[in-house]
Write a structure and sequence with these properties.
The complex is a heterotrimer of chains A (399), B (251) and C (296).
Chain A: H1 4-10, H2 20-39, H3 42-67, H4 76-97, H5 108-112, H6 128-150, H7 158-177, H8 179-182, E1 188-189, H9 197-218, H10 221-231, H11 233-238, H12 243-269, E2 271-272, H13 279-292, H14 299-317, H15 319-336, H16 340-366, H17 368-381, H18 387-392
Antiparallel strand pairs in A: 1-2
Chain B: E1 4-15, E2 18-29, E3 33-37, H1 44-52, E4 59-64, E5 67-68, H2 74-80, E6 82-85, H3 97-104, H4 111-116, H5 121-134, H6 149-163, E7 167-171, H7 179-193, E8 197-201, H8 205-211, E9 214-219, E10 222-228, H9 229-234, H10 236-243
Helix pairs in contact in B: 3-6, 5-6
Chain C: H1 2-33, H2 40-58, H3 62-85, H4 92-114, E1 130-132, E2 138-140, H5 141-162, H6 165-175, H7 177-182, H8 187-209, H9 220-234, H10 241-259, H11 262-279
Antiparallel strand pairs in C: 1-2
Chain lengths: 399, 251, 296
């Protein structure tokens, strides 16, 4: 009964890459955020810029975890690397123009730690272009090396999570230990920040760009391959896909994305510390992605704004309560809403559509003009039932 | 060498002291439908695992189209033209039936290719064609985990057909099926075999009788008998091995 | 130089013992139930607080607090297993996140009860002081006690697993969960008891660590990470993995920290771990999957 055309009609309908409503929605949200500084308070504007940076970071976690099944608890490593490159660069150029109390033209924390000049290896970072190139290159390189070491040996899942966690912890200790170079426990601060409406536009622009890129990535063939690797890597391997390469690719892409988010964050916030590279931020990013919907590209934005927004709202009232809420949120999301907000919504829409389509396909042959033809045809062909039974659609057997 | 597409010489597998395959010599001709029989633990699935690259053998050689594929990684063996089906259906659970087949279509296995590949109308038609072939066209949009057991088996076969390999390894595709589904599966295999070389592991004698003209019987990691089905069934040794299981009674 | 390294080697024993005590509970839980318990460090922390209560409130010393902490934290583990872990056994990554949530909650609760200031717990009088060890460093009695305790706990766990009926059930569940279920083993009960036992071991770790470390609500996390590393290095399939992993990491960190500094030491040990799993992906004593394509 089924024809190719019918199959095309009710089952193979695919969403367009960028549905009109999503373009409109994103445009509206971006417009609200972009014009906020014109009428809003500076405090909230600060938060908005920060949230968008964190959203990009959460999106990078979504890509590797939600779409490719790799849970990294050290994604903040890449965020932090990006942030430190930019902060260092801004700090170096700020120090060169604004001598410290003792007349030095090197960053104050270096001076406090007994350095008399900027280490040669860091000097080129003075130029922001160099810093941006470093930001794009080194985190990706580190992700690549990590990927080659682990994914090529079929190490993933809990092992990968635990190793990345330790990696983040060690990087954090490194930053604290080598304070002459990194600013140590207090981090790098007191440099010229980019905290105004125009830079907010830059952040929003980058966010939209990365959002679109992620949507492209996840909804094209490579996205399907990544999902298939997530679902069943053994089958994918025997289906000719070199699974490790796909994991490495998406891991590098996401890490670069996290680094970009970190760079924007450093320029916006004007302070970067070891906390921005540590396991805590990594795991918080995971929960933002999880709340919004880890296997969606819009989810991380929604999750970050909700959770981070709630954090700022709640911790003003009761600081300790926030941690409790966070803890309960982890358990709640994992146990009762593993697909997150957007994932749950998306799933129910898809299910409803599927059900409707299926019902429609059945209906087409059971009522309406098609049904008459169907019944007429089967009335002549189905010999087991009476002719009239067939025509009227009655069951042939009578008790 | 002759028209043998697959040539296995002296294949040996030992796992923690147990010999699973013991100096096995085995070959499959091109365009043949070969049925692999044997009691549980005979080494049938292990043999499939070795050919498809799941394990590395302890010794011996596997030649495919006269090229050595012993111990290659699964994706490399796939590239040479071998694709396998698992005993327990193995698919991409959350992807739609359509995508399951689409992702299995021949070609485009590198990351770069996947990155820039756009699905053409020809690809789509091919997928629909395959879905019709396995009878799942109506469920094209369903996630794979919504399928019944039999449908999952067919879907995995559809994925193999999509990959268009030179040699298909089917590991017990009728396990856990109803009689009607088994018949359908047998038909399916027969039609697949018209265009491909197939190595089929099968337990169900009804299915074997429908399909098999040439069978190989494995026992304790070695070949017990090989030949036309009727000869093998008549073989005294084979009857002995199977007697306990009663599989050949009434044959 | 050689002498000094030898001294470090001996003092490294205590770190090895600490790692064994801390990691053993985690190894038991991960090895049998397949759950990565991110709250393990916080269980240790709770154990340390219980020990401080035992000392200041009840006037007992470490010998008293060991069994009390074992029972108290074991019960805590039981509650967590019943409420949070149950139903997540086939999703290891999810349990990891859920138990992280548990760790946050535990920190808040401890902060609410005890405040954020540091607590100090003394060691028992008979274990104060030390004896001369090779390399002129005095070797504290308490360290010797830790080493002996780590051996004792290992032996006890070994006996529990390999000499009791419960242990037989545990090993059966570990090898083949669904088969064990079919054979009439109550796998849910095994999981629950194993989780409680592993948590109890964390409590013991807290009790004996309290006298040598400052007790604070956030003290747990580094122990959890160190314990994970021990497991990754040693493998989870075999109890031997814990002492071997702990020995390599503990000695490595102590000696390298002496030669360079503690951060470099940690980094080098981390690189060593990565190298090891590159060669044997499931750790030195890990149960290497027979299949190439390993499925969860």
């Amino acid at each position: 009964m089924t024809t190719v055309a019918a199959a095309g009609r009710f089952n193979l309908r695919r969403e367009p890459m960028f549905p009109l409503w999503s373009i409109a929605g994103v445009a509206a949200v971006v417009a609200i955020l972009a014009t906020y500084p014109l009428y809003g308070t500076e405090y909230v504007m600060n938060l908005l810029g920060m949230f968008v940076c964190f959203s990009i970071f959460a999106l990078s976690i979504s890509l590797i975890w939600g779409f490719a099944g790799i849970l990294s608890l050290g994604q903040a490593i890449y965020f932090g690397m990006g942030a430190y490159f930019i902060a260092l660069s801004l700090k170096l150029s700020y120090a060169a123009e604004n001598p410290t109390r003792y007349g030095g033209t090197i960053p104050d924390y270096m001076e406090w730690n007994g350095l008399t000049e900027v280490p040669t290896i860091m000097a080129p970072l003075m130029h922001i272009e160099v810093a941006i190139v470093c930001l794009l290159f080194f985190p990706t390189l580190l992700a690549f090396i990590f990927g080659v070491i682990t994914f090529k040996r079929h190490i993933y899942g809990v092992y990968c999570a635990v190793i990345t966690l330790a990696e983040a912890l060690i990087l954090q200790e490194f930053i604290i230990e080598y304070q002459a170079y990194t600013g140590g426990f207090n981090g790098i601060t007191d440099y010229e920040t980019y905290n105004n409406m125009y830079f907010l536009w830059v952040i929003l622009g980058v966010a939209v760009l990365l959002f679109a890129a992620s949507r492209l990535l996840t909804h094209s063939r490579i996205g399907t391959v990544l999902k298939s690797v997530r679902d069943n890597d053994v089958r994918a391997e025997f289906n000719g896909y070199e699974v490790a390469n796909y994991r490495i690719f998406v891991f590098c892409f996401a890490s670069m994305m996290a680094a970009i988010a970190g760079g924007l964050y450093a320029a916006w916030m004007g302070i970067v510390s070891h906390l921005d590279t540590g396991p805590i931020l990594s795991i918080e990013g995971v929960i933002w992605a999880a709340v919004g919907g880890r296997a969606t590209v819009i989810g991380p934005f929604i999750g970050t704004f909700l959770v981070k927004g709630a954090e700022f709202f709640l911790s003003e009232q009761l600081a300790w309560a926030w941690q409790l809420v966070m803890g309960l949120l982890f358990i709640f999301v994992v146990k009762f809403m593993p697909d997150g907000i957007m994932g749950t919504i998306g799933k129910s829409i898809a299910m409803g559509r599927q059900r409707a389509a299926y019902a429609e396909s059945e209906d087409a042959f059971q009522s309406g003009p098609m049904a008459v033809i169907t019944r007429l045809r089967s009335a002549f062909t189905d010999g087991n039932r009476g002719f009239m039974d067939n025509l009227l659609g009655r069951s042939g057997r009578r008790d | 060498m002759s028209g043998n597409i697959l040539e296995i010489t002296g294949l040996t597998t030992r796992v923690s002291g147990y010999t699973i395959l013991d100096d096995l010599y085995f070959s499959v001709e091109e365009n043949e439908l070969r049925v692999l029989l044997g009691p549980n633990g005979a080494g049938k699935t292990t043999l499939i695992d070795m050919i498809s690259g799941r394990y590395k053998p302890t010794g011996g050689k596997i030649l495919f189209e006269n090229r050595d594929i012993t111990g290659l990684a699964p994706h490399k063996i796939f590239k040479r033209g071998i694709c396998r089906k698992f005993q327990v259906p193995n698919m991409y659970e959350t992807l739609s039936v359509f995508d399951n087949v689409m992702i299995s279509l021949a070609g485009h296995r590198l990351v770069v290719q996947s990155l820039f590949h756009k699905h053409t109308a020809t690809d789509q038609d091919r997928v629909v064609e395959i879905l019709e072939f396995i009878g799942l066209v109506e469920k094209a949009g369903f996630p794979a985990d919504a399928l019944s057991h039999g449908e999952r088996q067919w879907l995995e076969m559809g994925m193999l057909i999509a990959a268009d390999p030179k040699l298909l390894l089917l590991d017990e595709p009728t396990t856990g099926m109803t009689e009607a589904d088994k018949q359908k599966t047998a038909d399916l295999i027969q039609r697949i075999a018209e265009r491909h070389t197939v190595l089929l592991v099968e337990h169900d004698m009804h299915v074997v009788r429908r399909l098999g003209n040439f069978v190989t019987v494995l026992h304790q990691g070695g070949i017990l008998a090989e030949g036309p089905l009727s000869d093998v069934v008549a073989n005294e040794e084979v009857r002995q091995v199977y007697l306990g299981q009663g599989k050949f009674s009434g044959a | 130089m050689g002498d000094a390294v030898l001294t470090q080697f001996f003092s490294g024993f205590s770190l090895v013992a600490i790692l064994i005590i801390a990691a053993l509970g985690l190894a038991v839980i991960f090895g049998v139930a397949g759950v990565i318990n991110m709250a393990h460090g916080e269980f240790i922390m709770v154990g340390a607080y219980v020990a401080s209560v035992v000392q200041s409130g009840l006037g007992g010393n470490t010998f008293w607090s060991i069994p009390i902490c074992f029972v108290a934290v074991g019960l805590l583990g039981l509650v967590v297993e019943r409420t949070v872990i149950r139903g997540l056994y086939d999703r290891p990554l999810e349990t990891l996140l859920a138990t992280w949530g548990v760790s946050l909650i535990l920190i808040v609760i401890i902060k609410m009860i005890f405040g954020t200031e540091l607590h100090y717990v003394g060691s028992p009088e008979m274990l104060q002081g030390g004896f001369p060890a090779p390399g002129n460093l005095p070797f504290p009695w308490y360290r010797l006690f830790l080493i002996l305790l780590s051996i004792l706990l290992l032996v006890l766990t070994f006996v529990l697993f390999f000499r009791t009926k419960f242990g037989l059930a545990v090993r059966a569940v570990r090898r083949n969960r669904s088969m064990s279920e079919a054979m009439g083993i109550n796998t849910a009960r095994v999981d629950m008891l194993i989780f409680a036992y592993g948590s109890g071991l964390a409590g013991v770790a807290g009790a004996v660590l309290a006298p040598i470390k400052t007790v604070s609500p956030t003290m747990g996390f580094p122990y959890a990470v160190d314990s994970f590393m021990v497991l990754v290095m040693g493998g989870v399939g075999n109890l031997l993995g814990v002492p071997v992993g702990a020995a390599i990491i503990g000695e490595g960190e102590t000696i390298l920290a002496f030669l360079f500094n503690s951060v470099i030491g940690k980094l080098l040990v981390f690189l060593l771990i990565v190298l090891v799993i590159r060669i044997v992906p499931r750790g030195i004593f890990g149960y290497q999957e027979r299949t190439l394509g390993h499925r969860r």
